[in-house]
Amino acid sequence: MTFTPPEHIPKQPVFDLLALTGSSKGSPSPPSLRDAPYQCPVNRGSLAIALALRHIGLSGRKEVLVPAYHCGAMIEPILAEGGIPIFYRIRADTTVDLEDMARRRTPATRVVLVPHFFGFLQPLQAVRAWCDAHDLILIEDCAHAFFGETEGCPVGTQGDYAIGSTWKFFPLNEGGCLVSFRHPLNTIKTRAPSLSEELKAVVNTLEYASTYGRLGSFNALFKNIFHLKDWLVQRLRSEPPSLAPPHKSGDAPTPEDFVPAPFHSGFDPKRTTLSGSLWARWVTEKSSLSFIVEKRRENYQTLLEASVNLPGCHPLFPHLPEGIVPHVFPLVMDQPLAVFGKLKFAGVPIIRFGEFLWDKMEKGTCPISEDYSRRIFQFPCHQSLQKHELNWMIQVLSAVLTGSGSLPSHPDQHAP
């Protein structure tokens, strides 16, 4: 049986009026993928990778250089488009090991994929120059980095193509984009979502918002509607109701009862040409970009300061440079297995990018990637986190890592 404890605070941005009317509305917009002159909205960022490869046309040169630190959503589109992933090393700061990348290039190499891990932009000028020298196409993977600039270069401008995941930065449950500052994308043909797909995009967003009480006076009404919807879906599918976590009869469940759900990247090759929903485009267009940027940086800084004195861990990025807009707060754990279940069971949302590396990658390809796959936990720092939620997460982290005893109560009890 699989049991995933409920997350007491939202893992990703939540829809509410503040998302559209943030206090920084009217401030200068930061650099973002929205600035690209060529845009192709899609359903998910992984689909944008497939579309970029299709637009390039791999032909006889099918090898795609990808980082050894990766997730399935980066590899599966390559395989679906007939590409062959070749893995290069990263350095401890997650930047490209260009010397290793050069060693792995062959006459069959056509594409280089470079992600901006966790929103911290890679310095890509040297990589861009190397790609130009060897007639290689550079895809800038901005799934973790919708905003920002480094080396004076705005996000997305160094790649021939850039892909983004709008749902990771905006209050949505789906959405991505393929953009380019260099190549027109008008030859890419996508299909519009059906009416049911459009409605699903809206319903999923509102349901997630109601889960965390973000719909104000309408919250109770929507919760009842969504409970009824879930009941009807279960009846139609003849599914039994959700079961309690597995534990001995009469005993309270413990962190040891936690069994992670099977990993799924979310990539579906049948949906490669599915365009982004009108809802996702509207929310992205109406959201206050400066509010998103300021709140994410502020929340990251709060988590960074709180982690300084925590034992058994250290921040992957101990400094937040100007121009960087984080996706999450990555924390390197000394003993990940000892704390993971406790944090999850307490209701803390944890993201594990790269937890499952592609099983056909040769062991020892990149020791840093293999180490980070096990030891880096990512915690939310998005703009929708309320102050009491952020403080609660910090208190739980402290209690678990210091072994100080009882955990703080559910954050709702501390809501203003």
From TrEMBL:
InterPro entries registered for this protein in UniProt: DegT/StrS_aminotransferase (IPR000653), PyrdxlP-dep_Trfase (IPR015424), PyrdxlP-dep_Trfase_major (IPR015421), PyrdxlP-dep_Trfase_small (IPR015422)
Uppermost EC category: transferase
EC number of the protein: 2.6.1.100, 2.6.1.101
SUPFAM superfamilies per UniProt: PLP-dependent transferases
GO biological process: polysaccharide biosynthetic process
Pfam family, one: DegT_DnrJ_EryC1
Gene Ontology terms for molecular function: pyridoxal phosphate binding; transaminase activity
Record key words, sorted: Aminotransferase, Pyridoxal phosphate, Transferase
UniProt similarity note: Belongs to the DegT/DnrJ/EryC1 family.
The name this protein goes by in its record: L-glutamine:2-deoxy-scyllo-inosose aminotransferase
Organism: Ferrovum myxofaciens
